[in-house]
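Appendix C: a fully annotated inverse folding record. The material below is reproduced so that readers can follow the format used throughout the book. The structure is listed first as tokens, followed by the designed sequence.
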């Protein structure tokens, strides 16, 4: 491991941080900059490191002995675990600078800031000495030239009047899980958060919204144009979309539901009719459902879908046609452990567990949790008065309800 003399900060995002013993402390999420007077380049004071339980701490650069392409090495095992809070006069290198529209002084051309490099000065301070900017061409089919310039050779990097996009910030965090990206967005200003939300694809934004506290969900959804908000709601799981809409005034609920495709809006409308402390208010309307003549091989192929959460992938619900909720008559549950032990050509109807009694939508929370705990279940089917499957409640649905309303807020971890 070596100590670099010039470090591009976007490349540090996600890099592991090790203590002197080589033990994993966390991962780099950003760098903290302190503004200086006049046109002097900002000073880099330290890194934001995300440790366990999504906690973000500040690690001063003085505690770092070396940088490498795949790790940052500390010179001490003693660091403050106090949660990082941004102070006045501080900027975040990735959160505040990346995607800023700047002007190249020499040519007067407009460009976008795509990275910033820190270098050690003669006084041993780390300063933002270089920036990487890409010219804006105005042509969709052609990317502008990339320039590496001194800090003084651009204008507007810290000018709030210059428009800031989100493409490069999203590229830095592209590999993050939705929950981790949600955590990143909580650290952004309201304006910056809206810019990132506007740049995310509908499905990605839907996944991120499901991981945010309710207040942040409402704020972001409200920042979107109505048609876009409806598209994002369609991409969400119906139960999560219903929970989010439940935080809005009734007239706003109806307006957004009216903009959604009917087949996407209908299950959400049904969920909104149930009390939130009943099985109906907690269930998802999209469990894994197959007809009785499906084979074990088909069932296993179905639960391999990476978009299905583990709790739902643990069992297949077998029902008469139709197989979309509300289904035909519910027949039983096929557990994945049993499916893995059976020949691929066996019918799922031959391996059903019929000992699990389905619940109705009005089952109260107390009874629901007791049944899940008593029978060690990860999910339980919910049926209507005609024994048609209308959804399933998973353990994580119950935990979401039992935990405090603000449990997703990282400040309460």
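Designed amino acids, in order:
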């Amino acid at each position: 491991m070596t100590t670099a003399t010039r470090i591009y900060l976007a490349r540090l995002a996600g890099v592991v941080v090790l203590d002197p013993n080589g033990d994993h402390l966390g991962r780099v999420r950003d760098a903290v900059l302190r503004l200086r007077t006049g046109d002097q380049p900002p000073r880099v004071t330290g890194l934001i490191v995300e440790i366990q339980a999504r906690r973000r701490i500040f690690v001063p650069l003085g505690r770092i002995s070396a940088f490498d392409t795949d790790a940052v090495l500390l010179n001490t095992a003693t660091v403050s675990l106090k949660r990082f809070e941004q102070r006045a006069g501080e900027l975040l290198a990735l959160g505040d600078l990346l995607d800023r529209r700047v002007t190249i002084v020499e040519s007067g051309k407009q460009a976008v800031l795509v990275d910033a490099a820190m270098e050690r000065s003669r006084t041993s301070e780390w300063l933002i000495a270089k920036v990487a900017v890409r010219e804006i061409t105005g042509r969709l089919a052609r990317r502008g030239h990339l320039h590496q310039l001194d800090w003084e050779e651009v204008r507007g990097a810290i000018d709030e009047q210059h428009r800031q996009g989100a493409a490069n910030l999203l590229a830095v965090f592209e590999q993050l899980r939705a929950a981790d990206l949600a955590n990143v967005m909580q650290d952004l200003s309201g304006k910056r958060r809206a810019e990132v939300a506007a740049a995310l694809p509908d499905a990605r934004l839907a996944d991120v919204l499901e991981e945010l506290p309710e207040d942040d969900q409402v704020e972001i959804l409200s920042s979107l144009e109505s048609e876009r908000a409806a598209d994002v709601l369609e991409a969400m799981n119906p139960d999560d979309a219903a929970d989010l809409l439940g935080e809005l005034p009734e007239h706003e609920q109806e307006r957004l539901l009216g903009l959604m495709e009917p087949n996407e809006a209908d299950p959400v409308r049904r969920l909104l009719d149930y009390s939130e402390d009943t099985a109906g208010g907690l269930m998802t309307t999209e469990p894994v459902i197959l007809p009785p003549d499906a084979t074990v091989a088909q069932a296993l192929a179905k639960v391999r879908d990476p978009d299905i959460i583990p709790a739902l992938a643990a069992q297949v619900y077998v029902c008469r046609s139709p197989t979309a909720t509300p289904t035909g008559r519910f027949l039983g549950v096929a557990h994945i452990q049993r499916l893995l032990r059976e020949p691929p050509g066996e019918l799922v109807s031959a391996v059903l567990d019929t000992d699990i009694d389905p619940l109705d939508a009005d089952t109260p929370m107390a009874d629901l949790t007791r049944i899940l705990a008593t029978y060690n279940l990860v999910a339980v089917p919910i049926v209507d008065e005609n024994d048609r499957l209308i959804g399933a409640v998973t353990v994580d649905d119950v935990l979401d309800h039992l935990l405090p309303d603000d449990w997703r807020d990282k400040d309460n971890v």
